[in-house]
Design brief:
There is one protein chain. By secondary structure, this protein is an alpha/beta fold. The chain has four helices and six strands. Strands 1, 2, 3, 4, 5 and 6 form a six-stranded mixed sheet that branches. Helix 1 links the parallel strand 1 and strand 2. It is globular, with a radius of gyration of 14 Å. The model has no long low-confidence stretch (mean pLDDT 90).
């Protein structure tokens, strides 16, 4: 049986920065294992290397200059062009570190509206995450727009 992994990244105590955690906590699909990683997705590299998923999806808040709640696949070569949530290690390093054992790694950014200590996730961003959850659950990852291709 093929296994896939979804990593939800972010800080749920900082408003929209917690949207990756929101997605991971709600995502359910056969052959998928979701993890809410917080700010340290690198702590999950051991389980990823052991599992050797065919697909790894990372979901994080990312300032991409689009409407709050909109989401995009961020290509590896555009990661440095967007402001991505708060975490220990740049996601480009994580992707490079895992690329030798994972067939497909997809970084999905969700545009935040606000990120402040103690704030809740904003309504628009939560609604966008719910739309993303529907697409992920349907298995139609190719329906997700790619940043810079629109």
């Amino acid at each position: 049986m093929t296994t896939n992994i979804l990593l939800g990244i972010g800080n749920p105590l900082n408003g929209d920065d917690g949207i990756g955690i929101y997605v991971a906590e709600r995502f359910r699909k056969d052959d998928w294992i979701p993890f809410a990683c917080g700010n340290a997705p690198e702590n999950f590299t051991g389980i990823i290397r052991k599992t050797r998923p065919s697909c790894l999806v990372l979901v994080d808040a990312a300032a991409m200059g689009i409407s709050p709640g909109e989401y995009r696949i961020i290509p590896r070569d555009k990661i440095e062009d967007v402001s991505i949530g708060t975490h220990q290690l740049p996601l480009s390093f994580l992707i490079d570190f895992l690329s030798d054992i994972v067939e497909r790694i997809i970084l999905i950014g969700i545009q935040p509206e606000r990120a402040g200590t103690g704030e809740e996730i904003s309504l628009q961003v939560r609604e966008g995450a719910d739309r993303l959850l529907y697409v992920l659950s349907s298995g139609e990852l190719d329906r997700i727009p790619v940043l810079g291709s629109e």
